[in-house]
Design a protein that fits this description.
The chain is an alpha+beta fold. The strands form six sheets. The protein has a five-stranded parallel β-sheet, with helices on both faces. It is built from twelve helices and 23 strands. The protein starts with a strand and ends in an 18-residue tail after the last helix. Helix 1 runs parallel beside helix 10. The radius of gyration is 21 Å and the shape is globular. The protein folds into four domains: 91 residues, 3-Layer(aba) Sandwich (Rossmann fold), CATH 3.40.50.20; 69 residues, ATP-grasp fold, A domain (Dna Ligase, domain 1); 127 residues, ATP-grasp fold, B domain (D-amino Acid Aminotransferase, Chain A, domain 1, 2-Layer Sandwich); 76 residues, Phosphoribosylglycinamide synthetase, C-terminal domain (Glycinamide Ribonucleotide Synthetase, Chain A, domain 4), CATH 3.90.600. Bound molecules: adenosine monophosphate and glycine. Adenosine monophosphate binds next to strand 8, strand 9 and strand 17.
């Protein structure tokens, strides 16, 4: 098979690496990819949202299968477009991807089908939202932009002033554009967070091993939300018993609800869960692999990924057994100084070999370019330094040893990945 992966981050690098191990894959392309992905796949300079460009590349280069990894092209109907042209894909169509791209839709789905989640109301006018928040009178309160916002559209307001400011930023300043036309105002939940990714073809659901993301920018879970600063797998809070409960009350009901709504979901469904004192609840769904969860989860996958994704696209997932390494894995993200705010680009990265790697770890590139035989920063999240170990402690100590070998001006990373328990 000739496979094209769409996307350009650390997640896509982890996907490419896994597919490269498959005897079923003869050639591997990535659009647009990045400096580090170029060591593992042929990178082609076509944007992830360029439907026509992707289709013409697919036709001109004998591509058999397209893996659409990021949220934006999924929400924009990349899969619908390619499938209409007869190309097999991994990823949901636009109607199914709405489970991520509209929080108003996903919250409504959970309410309708009794899937546990935070209590909420939807508003399209900031003054009505504010009146509701004041009427509730309890803080913190969670305010979420309806649409996609690079993982930054959620504000936890500690008081009236912060709530007012959040509504203003999202609904009037429109920092997330049309994603802020409506907001979800919801109850603040507490408890450990767990990410579970699941393969599903709409008929069968196979949850992957659990993981834990670290969304806040700074140590001690402080600072602004980011796309994710590091991950561990397994998630130490996610017991067998909780997994069973989630399967019965959340995972399977979600798959069935989507079918019931005529939005059969085929691809990877991301469950962002919170283990509250009242049981596991859904914080968010994503319609794709998480970043940087993929880096730790796929590192533990033992079954051929190419076999799984083709089975999903054919609706034959039930024929597959998916197995996992018992080892633990950890990923520490090295980011540009200033991220998730503004940050410089084009800084030289030291410590990487000619393939963009370092001894003792797998370095998934998120925002890099390669030129003059070296690697340079080219994004907020730059590298995801990923390791395995017999337990989390070993995986983490290996990851941090590897991180210390790499440097670039202003580099920042959290020192407490996997330590929050
Ligand atoms: P989301 O983008 O929906 O995953 O939200 C980003 C982060 O905000 C989550 O990972 C949680 O840490 C936090 N969050 C979102 N919703 C809630 C909630 N209802 N209660 C408490 N924290 C939340
Ligand atoms: N790591 C969170 C996400 O991919 O949305």
């Amino acid at each position: 098979m000739n496979i094209l992966v769409i996307g350009s981050g650390g997640r896509e690098h982890a996907i490419v690496r896994k597919l490269k191990e498959s005897p079923l894959v003869s050639s591997l392309y990535c659009a647009p990819g990045n400096g580090g992905i170029a060591a593992d796949a042929v990178c082609v300079p076509i944007g992830a949202m360029d439907k026509e460009g992707i289709l013409s590349f697919v036709k001109g280069n004998g591509i058999d299968f397209v893996f659409v990894a990021p949220d934006d092209p999924l929400a924009a109907g990349m899969v619908d477009f390619l499938e209409a042209a007869g190309i097999s894909c991994f990823g949901p169509n636009a109607k199914a991807a709405e489970i991520e791209s509209s929080k108003v839709f996903s919250k409504g789905l959970m309410k309708k089908y009794g899937i546990p989640t935070a209590e909420y109301e939807v508003f399209s006018q900031p003054d009505k939202a504010m009146a509701y928040i004041e009427g509730r009178g309890s803080y913190p309160v969670v305010i979420k932009a309806d649409g996609l916002a690079l993982g930054k559209g959620v504000i936890i307001a500690q008081n009236r002033e912060e709530a007012k400011e959040a509504l203003h930023t999202i609904m009037e300043d429109k920092v997330f554009g049309d994603s802020g036309n409506e907001v979800v105002v919801e109850e603040f939940l507490t408890g450990p967070e767990v990410t579970v990714l699941a393969f599903t073809d709409g008929e069968t659901m196979i949850p992957m091993v659990s993981s834990m993301d670290h969304k806040r920018a700074y140590d001690g879970n402080r600072g602004p939300n980011t796309g994710g600063m590091g991950t561990i797998s397994p998630n130490p809070f996610y017991t067998e018993e909780i997994a069973k409960e989630c399967m019965e009350k959340i995972f399977l009901p979600t798959m069935r609800a989507m079918n019931q709504e005529g939005r059969r979901f085929q691809g990877c469904l991301y469950f962002g869960l919170m283990l509250t004192p009242n049981g596991p609840k859904v914080i968010e769904y994503n319609s794709r692999f998480g970043d940087p969860e993929t880096q730790v989860v796929l590192s533990r996958l033992e079954t051929d990924l190419a076999e799984i994704i083709t089975a999903v696209s054919r609706g034959r997932l039930k024929e597959i057994t998916v197995s996992w390494s018992k080892q633990a894995s950890a990923c520490v993200v090295m980011a540009s100084g200033g991220y998730p705010g503004s940050y410089p680009k084009g800084l030289k990265i030291s410590g990487l070999d000619e393939h963009g790697q370092v001894a003792g770890a797998t370095v998934f590139h998120a925002g890099t370019v390669q030129r003059d035989g070296g690697f340079y920063t080219n994004g907020g999240r730059v590298l995801g330094v990923t390791t395995m170990g017999s337990d989390l402690e070993e995986a983490l100590s290996r990851a941090y040893s590897a991180v210390e070998k790499i440097s670039f001006e202003g580099a920042m990373y959290r020192k407490d990945i996997g330590k929050a328990y």
